[in-house]
Model the fold of this input.
Amino acid sequence: MNNIKPILSYKWAIPIGLLISSGSLMLRFFVSVPDFVSGILQGVAVGIMLVALVKKRRTGCRYAE
Done:
């Protein structure tokens, strides 16, 4: 009886997170990047991938179909 459809599909989040992660590693290999910037990029990449993997349940939300 759950007729609520998700607004966003998180299928795009894993490839985007992997691209950010690999881009961060390539940037760190070819250019001298501070640890803070490298950590921020890796953290954002992991965060985006976790968003895709975590199944969120929203109770009480009513979306128009």
Observations:
- Residues 35-53 form the longest helix (19 residues).
- Residues 10-53 form one domain.
